[in-house]
Amino acid sequence: MKMTSKAVLHGIKQSKGDIEGRPFDSTTFHLSVDIAQTSSGESIGVVTRPFKLGDSTEFQKWSHLKNSWPLGGVMCECEFDIVAGAENTTKLTLLAIKPAAQAKAA
Question: Is the sign of the CA dihedral 79, 62, 32, 23 positive or negative?
């Protein structure tokens, strides 16, 4: 099932190269997620969660912000795919991400 949501993007990491002749090329987006309560205890606040999306060309779309990244992150519109897993779990996959539209001053 696909869904859209707004989330704060705190960082982006590009990984590209090769290890022992095997190439790799990916971009990881670190988005805020609610920690929520689990069976192993309680929690407060939010953490970032890594979501891989595409290759290093995804990173290049954001590289103009390298020297001006806002301390609080960037509000984004995200598209996710949610798939039911074993034991009442769900898997969340990032399908698309873009900066959220800025509200215009009156």
Answer: positive
pLDDT score of 3: 92
- Burial pattern 15-54, b for ≥16 Cβ within 10 A else e, equals eeeeeeeeeeeebbbbbbeeeeeeeeeeeeeeebbebebe
Query: What distance in Å separates the CA atoms of residue 25 and residue 39, rounded to the nearest whole number?
Result: 36
Please report which helix (H) or strand (E) contains residue 4, including its range: strand 2-19
Whole-number CA gyration radius for the chain: 16
Q: Report the pLDDT averaged over residues 10-36.
A: 90
Q: Is the dihedral of CA 54, 59, 61, 62 positive or negative?
A: positive
Question: How far is 31 from 73, CA to CA, in rounded Å?
Answer: 9
- pTM for this prediction: 0.82
Q: What is the pLDDT of residues 30-76, one digit of tens each?
A: 999 766 555 667 777 778 899 999 999 999 999 998 899 998 999 99
**24, 55 Cβ separation under 8 angstroms:** no
